[in-house]
Structures are given as C-alpha cells and as structure tokens.
Specification:
By secondary structure, the protein is mainly α. It has two domains: 249 residues, no CATH class; 89 residues, no CATH class. It has a two-stranded antiparallel ribbon. Helix 4 packs parallel to helix 7 and helix 9 packs across helix 11. The radius of gyration is 26 Å and the shape is flat. The model has no long low-confidence stretch (mean pLDDT 91). This is ABC transporter permease. Keywords: Membrane, Transmembrane, Transmembrane helix.
Length: 404
C-alpha cells in the first residue's frame, strides 16, 4: 500500500529527476569526448604542424626535477602529451601530463577537456533530499500519511526505500554511465585513468553525496517555516561548498612548523569531481557514519512529529538547543577558517613587524562566536522570543524564561 502511494506521488518526479541527472552526465561526458576529438583533429592538421615547425621553442613544459621549462623534442611528443585527459594541472600551467601517468594518492589530478556538471548534480541530489520531506510537510501530505493505519516507523522506512533510495541509485548509475562513456569515447592510452581509479573516485564522491543528501533530509524534516526553511538549506549548501577549503585551512594551522606537512593531501579529502583523483578510502566510513547519525536523528523526530508546530522555524521544539549548537559549531568553523582566519593571520605574521597580538586574536575569535551564537539564537528561538515579548508587552510582568 505504501509503495503504491509513494510511487503514485513521486513516480513522475523520479522519472524527471532521472532524465535530468542522466542528461547532465551525458552532456558532461559528451563535452569531454567531443573536446578531446576536436583537439586531436587540430593537432594533426597541417596548420598546427606548420605552427610547431616555425616556433618549436614556444612549446614547453615544466620539469619538476630540473626546475625549469623544457622544450618538446618532437611534435609527436607534444601531441601525445597534450591529449592525455588527466594531468597534475590545467593545460595552461604547462606541466607535462606524462608526470600524471603513475597514480599518486597525494596528487590532485585535473581533467583537461570538456565542461563540469559534477558539482551541479550533487547540488540537485541534495535539493531532492530536502524537498522529499519539506514538501510533504507544507502540502499537508503528512496529515494524509498519519491518518493511515501504518506506524510512523513504516512511513519513514517506506519513504527512504521508495523515494530516497531511487534518487541515490539514479545518481550512482548516472556516474557509472559517465565513466563508461569516457572509456568508450576516448582511446587508450589517452584516458589515463584505469577503471579501478575511476570507480574509486565514484565511491568517494558518492559517499560524500550521501552525506549531503542525509543532512538535507534532516533539514527538510526539521524546518517548518515556508520562507526560512528553504533559506536554511540554501545557506547550508553554500557553506557546505566551503568545507573543503575550511578544513584545509584548519589543518594548516598545525603544520606551520612542519615542513613535511601531513601524510595525506588535504585537497583530496573531499572528492567533488569524478576523475583520476580517488581520495582516501578512510574518508568513506566517516561520511557514511555521519550520514547514518543524521538519518537516525531524523527518524527519531519523525516518529514524534506534531502537526501543531507547522509554520514554526523548527517543527520539534525539544530539539532547538541541539540544533542551535550544531548550527553554531558549523557556521563558526567555516567563519573562522574561511572568512576571518584570525589564527592563520596570527601564525603567519607572528615573527614579522606586523604581528598580531594573541589577545587580539582571541578577542576576534570570541567576537565571531558570540555574534553567530546570538544571530542563530534569534533564528532558532524566534517563536519563543516573540511569545515572551508579547507577554511582556501585554502583562508588564517578569519574563517567562522557562519558554527556552
């Protein structure tokens, strides 16, 4: 019964979602393959051959060992180098793709052809996670579901099975289609990434997408305000896009006096693009465990969802303090490590004439924490603050602090 209900409500939407995701990955793969073949055709043209013969000294690459620019010994060597799909840098950086043939987990590899819709597809999947709970709440579909004889545990499980799981499977199949298209469309050895490397990249990317999807489900199930609910998800998505840089900046605070740095590449912790960069296997269980915790939290609250709080910022008043703390920690981490960077400034200028005092650094950190805490307190507890203010104006008596 629940399967029929959910498929009737979401069936056409899932088909449209599949067309959109597969369409984006097709455009991405087709663009890469078409760009490669166009470059291959140009490099084998008489115009390019004439250009290379007239100015061979202008075709150079950077040699890491010799630490200087080197000229290509022949046009064949140059063409072969330029047609490799994955390199250690973009083509205009003049770093030879030959250096990217042997896989190194500490190296970040870039695609040298085509466009990139990978981040957009992750954004769309995350949005779908938010909407499958938020829309049902705002369209009163939850009222219909709660009137059914099934328990809420069954309602929640069925939605994950018949709606959330198909969304993730569509996304995963589209990714497999993408790498298959590349393998078929670009001949060896120029697609210089093995099947295992590409699948490794997909698994890491997919686990990260599951995390964003789970957090979006959590947000969609917790917020009730028609304006601030979607705005919360938009702000979360924006801040989530800054997590890789924020995490790198945070870890770099502890490596100023470590010339060797870390045994892993900070840029490869979060794989947002499918390619030769596979990331680290140990990040996958981290993403999945956090995802399960958010799904578990969502499930616990869904079982006790009260329709009386519809319209409030948070549907579950008992979760306001945990949610406030979670939002405060998340936004503070990004604000301090991406936007303000007080500790990075302190460490960089520590031994210079422009050194910043430790007191000033601590003060600026505390100021950011307090401002964000107050702003988020107003957002999360707005309904209670509003009630307290109304009682104060109406009765002119002591504030009812127990509302918090």
């Amino acid at each position: 019964m629940l399967k029929r209900i959910y498929l009737k409500r979401y069936g056409k939407t899932l088909i449209a979602f599949a067309i959109l995701i597969f369409g984006l990955y097709f455009l991405n793969a087709h663009g890469t393959v078409s760009s490669w073949h166009a470059q291959n055709k140009y490099y084998h043209s008489s115009d390019f051959e004439r250009s290379f013969k007239e100015q061979p000294e202008s075709f150079t690459y950077w040699d890491d060992k010799l630490e200087k620019d080197m000229t290509y010994t022949s046009i064949k060597e140059y063409i072969s180098d330029q047609l490799y799909v994955y390199g250690r840098a973009y083509p205009d950086h003049h770093i030879s793709a030959q250096q990217a043939q042997e896989y190194n987990p500490k190296t970040t590899y870039f695609t040298r052809f085509g466009g990139d819709f990978n981040i957009l597809t992750i954004f769309i999947v995350s949005l779908a996670g938010f909407l499958i709970f938020f829309v049902d709440e705002k369209t009163a579909f939850n009222r219909f579901l709660f009137g059914l004889p099934q328990k809420r545990k069954q309602l929640f499980g069925a939605k994950l099975l018949y709606v959330a799981l198909p969304i993730l499977m569509i996304f995963l199949l589209a990714q497999l289609f993408y790498i298959t298209y590349l393998k078929i469309g670009i001949p060896d050895p120029y697609l210089n990434a093995s099947w295992s490397q590409l699948i490794h990249s997909i698994i890491n990317n997919f686990s990260l997408t599951i995390l964003l999807f789970a957090v979006s489900i959590f947000i969609g199930s917790m917020v009730g305000n028609l304006a601030f609910g979607p705005l919360t998800w938009v702000i979360f998505s924006f801040l989530a896009s800054l997590i890789p840089s924020s995490v790198s900046n945070f870890f770099n605070l502890f490596s100023f006096n470590q010339p060797k740095g870390y045994p892993f590449n900070l840029e490869n912790l979060f794989i947002v693009r499918i390619g030769k960069t596979g990331g680290y296997w140990w990040m996958i269980p981290i993403f999945l465990v956090i995802s399960l915790l958010f799904i578990w939290w969502t499930y616990r609250k869904f079982k006790n969802l009260s329709l009386e709080n519809d319209g409030d910022y948070l549907l579950h008043h008992s979760s306001r303090w945990p949610v406030w703390f979670l939002m405060w920690g998340f936004t503070s981490f990004i604000a301090l490590n991406y936007f303000t960077n007080p500790w990075q400034t302190y460490l960089v200028l520590k031994d210079s004439s422009k050194a910043v005092s430790l007191f000033s650094t601590i003060s600026s950190t505390a100021l950011v924490l307090v401002i964000l805490g107050l702003v988020l307190f107003v957002v999360v507890f707005f309904s209670s603050i509003k009630n307290v203010w109304q009682n104060y104006r109406g009765k002119r008596n002591n504030l009812d602090v127990t509302r918090f």
